[in-house]
Specification:
The complex is a heterotrimer of chains A (about 230), B (about 240) and C (about 280).
Chain A lengths: L1 H15 L3 H34 L5 H12 L3 H12 L14 H25 L5 H7 L4 H11 L1 H16 L3 H7 L9 H11 L2 H28 L4
Chain B lengths: L7 E10 L2 E11 L4 E5 L6 H8 L6 E7 L2 E2 L6 H5 L2 E4 L10 H11 L4 H14 L15 H14 L4 E5 L7 H18 L2 E5 L3 H7 L2 E6 L2 E6 L1 H6 L4 H7 L2
Helix pairs in contact in B: 3-4, 3-5, 4-5, 5-6
Chain C lengths: L1 H23 L6 E7 H6 L1 H13 L2 E7 L1 H9 L5 E4 L2 H9 L3 E17 L11 H11 L3 E3 L5 H13 L9 E3 L4 H10 L3 E5 H7 L5 E5 L6 E9 L9 H11 L2 H9 L2 H4 L5 E2 L11
Parallel strand pairs in C: 1-2, 1-3, 5-6, 5-7
Antiparallel strand pairs in C: 3-9, 4-7, 4-8, 4-9, 4-10
Helix pairs in contact in C: 6-7
The chains are: A mainly alpha (about 230), B alpha/beta (about 240), C alpha/beta (about 280).
Chain lengths: ~230, ~240, ~280
Amino acid sequence: MELIVEGVRQALALLLALDRELLTITWLSLKVSCSATLISLALGLPSGTLLALSDFPGRRLIISMVNTGMGLPPVVVGLFVTIFLWRNGPIGFLEILYTPTAMVLAQAVIATPIVTGITIASIQNLPAKLKLQILALGATRLQMVWILVREARLPLLAAVMAGFGGVISEVGASMMVGGNIKGQTRVLTTATVMETGKGNFDVAIALSLVLLGLAFGVNYLLTVIQQRERPR
Amino acid sequence: MTNFVPLLEMQDLLVRRGGSEVLRVPSFVLHENKTVALIGPNGSGKTSLLLALARLLDGARGLLYYRGAPVPDGRQVVDYRRKLAMVFQEPLLFDQTVEENVAAGLKLRGVSSAEVRQRVAACMERFKIAHLAKRSARKLSGGEGQRTSLARAFAAQPEVILLDEPFTSLDPLARRSLIEDFGSSLHASGGAAVVASHDREEVYRLADWVIALEAGRIIQSGRPDEIARQPVNPYVAAFFGV
Amino acid sequence: MLVARILCAVLLLVMSTGGVAAFAAGEGGKTVILATTTSTQDSGLLDLLLPIFEKQSGYQVKTISVGSGQAMKMGERGEADVLLVHSPAAEQKFMAAGFGATRRLVMHNDFVVVGPTADPAKIRGSGAVEAIRRIARSGALFASRGDNSGTHAKEQGLWKAAGINPEGQQWYQQTGLGMGQTLNVAAEKKGYTLTDRATYQALRKNLSLDILSEGDGKLLNVYHVLELNSVKWPKVNRAGGKAFADFMVSKQAQQLIGSFGISRYGSALFFPDAGKTLEALGL
């Protein structure tokens, strides 16, 4: 018990001193996860909307794949991305293994099914006749899609939060494709595992607190936006 | 003075679902300034016919003419649809203010903001919802919601308004006043309308012509007083209270 | 409200463009991938040596710390440029199979057998093989790395020498974790384990484990630096790997190795051996 208290105390000391390495690690965590979330939005929102609204052979198969992808273990993603990025692997010529780019790639692979899946559910949750109403007011297909996405903006914000939350807290894939290299690919999650393994519990707790703070902060911001528009 | 060329004409409408015929209408005509009422039990095909007129029905085959010219498929169908507006049984409003909802149809057509403001104000006046302009659509009563939906349809100044039992879910008082306001707005704008209805009063107040449907087929067609005098089946008889 | 939205958007934009800029900075021939063991990394020695090497040579080192087994597998596949490992038997096989270009002795330290102060298996002071024999006999818990690391290989050698097969026994627990975490497991469960002295020294303050067997010749832990055979894998950074290997056996590095840890732990964690033969070490 004293260990935890001692750990928290030392953690606060490190945080208040604005330790340089801590700041570097935190900034990298934010950059990587935000970039990955943005990519997953750019891919997931349009494809989710398309899957929700259109009808083509194989649609149900693809949707079930998306739903499976939502529960994909990040460490499995990490393993396969690593294999692909190996020098002698299929896309090894990119030479991005053990760089933040590889981490963004792996995290984007993890987050995209989540965003897509929630988008599909959000759009499908709109009133069934709404699509007809919009078209009956003289909308083009593009206008109709835009309005539906706008109407579903609250659950879609939840998709953003889910995507971001999934990757900021992810450690397995980040470790594998990033290598936890000091000053280059070390992020909050991988650093926490390492410090714990070394027995530096105070540092590990400090990192955990920062990670929690970060995750909470971003989600709080998004929640404020979402809940302001909630039907009262 | 009636135009020789009908505003809308549909021929040989055939709708199949899962291998069986759901709706078969050899001919349907709508003239300018006229209102046609569709009556019939649930599932008789009223909604399908309305959607087919808006080219929104999957699996519908048939010829559709607007002022004598065939209505295209594909992308240009939007130009045709912009001559219509449709109102459903539920208001189906957007998650915005009343004002923004009423403006929706105009915004879709790319009308300038100044004109939008003017037309929206006029429409809200007409339907007595001007005092609700800034209210969120989520906070409206059933009657207020349908008024907004109708105002939204009218604001776009369509040549044809299609209505699928728009007054059914309202209480009698709200219904009566809304029918009044709708009727006078329609008369003032000179538009044509097709109204699916379950209510005798609506039909007497609004319709120039009545079409009775049953199981996807037209079983009777004529002026309201004609049909009331000689109903072809028990439903129609009950509808007109004879 | 609008302010919050704009703030979000700006933040996101800054972060992603900042991110992209960082990613765009290329690497290529200036990177050296060093595959080494977790014990080397955890001891902190590399944190001392690498910045010096990077500054002098201009290379950027990416240290991937995994077990010796995985490090050598990476070498076999050409996914690393140079190896720093401590698993002699496996290394010899590696060289014999032609995967390595050169193999040079860098340093050594030793392993120790640690356990609870109470020492239920009564191994205090015994030789290495006798110690683990007693552990097996008493059925006391033994935490094994179980991960093909150099430590694991050394441990397996001891079992073999003792003529015991601990596989499947209830008291034999294979963690599959790094040395630090395995020590934690042993400490928590009041069991025994084999560890390199350096990691033990580094973590000592948090563990309630004592050194119970040390000094046996069989516990010597020898580190070599291996350059890879780039004929097989042309993408290997030959020059970079060579530069690193040369650095590790250079006078400068050897001196730093020899003095590492003295101020912090009171004794050196590693003993520099570049240029010596294994016989000179007593093997």
